[in-house]
Amino acid sequence: GDSVTQMEGPVTLSEEAFLTINCTYTATGYPSLFWYVQYPGEGLQLLLKATKADDKGSNKGFEATYRKETTSFHLEKGSVQVSDSAVYFCALSYNFNKFYFGSGTKLNVKP
Amino acid sequence: NAGVTQTPKFRVLKTGQSMTLLCAQDMNHEYMYWYRQDPGMGLRLIHYSVGEGTTAKGEVPDGYNVSRLKKQNFLLGLESAAPSQTSVYFCASSYSTSQETQYFGPGTRLLVL
What we know:
The complex is a heterodimer of chains A (about 110) and B (about 110).
Chain A: E1 3-6, E2 11-14, E3 19-21, E4 23-26, E5 32-38, E6 44-50, E7 56-59, E8 62-65, E9 75-77, E10 86-94, E11 98-101, E12 105-110
Parallel strand pairs in A: 2-12
Antiparallel strand pairs in A: 1-4, 3-9, 5-6, 5-10, 7-8, 8-9, 10-11, 10-12
Chain B: E1 4-7, E2 10-13, E3 19-25, E4 31-37, E5 43-49, E6 56-57, E7 65-67, E8 73-78, E9 87-94, E10 103-104, E11 108-112
Parallel strand pairs in B: 2-11
Antiparallel strand pairs in B: 1-3, 3-8, 4-5, 4-9, 5-6, 7-8, 9-10, 9-11
């Protein structure tokens, strides 16, 4: 079946450190891939997305590249800030109204 | 634009009680969704709607019912609440297919005793 697997958290980094959150997926079709972010006490917000292989999504310094050969969509940021502390969800969607979320990775950034 | 709003924000129920969660969106979106979020499990789709008057089952529909009488509203009902339904419930909407960006409400925290 279709699924999304994320690295378990929490991930704790110091400010200005490099961030990678791993995400791999299994899908029987050709999904779109998403990263959503959830700040404390809020709903999810779209961070970035990619709709086909080799596409790179980017927003607010975050990037992720749709890698079909490794079925991955890893999230990266070169220099994290305290304000990036949140829970990050990888997700895939395809085949009409099927949307699968990973379990989320909590990021803590310390000053 | 208020976006997606949810009512109530928090509720405590006793086992066997019923309640309705209300989701409203003002973006003229066709698609609406109800998810539940449990620790370590991400979000799971309960029910969804592709337009006014339509509903369909998601991944975990048992124990829930939904209605979409108006395009802007999507109601989630629990007829007889169980402790296993303790969760945070999120409503979302999107313009067209689920491959489009989904916009989420702030969530409803439900505790069933």
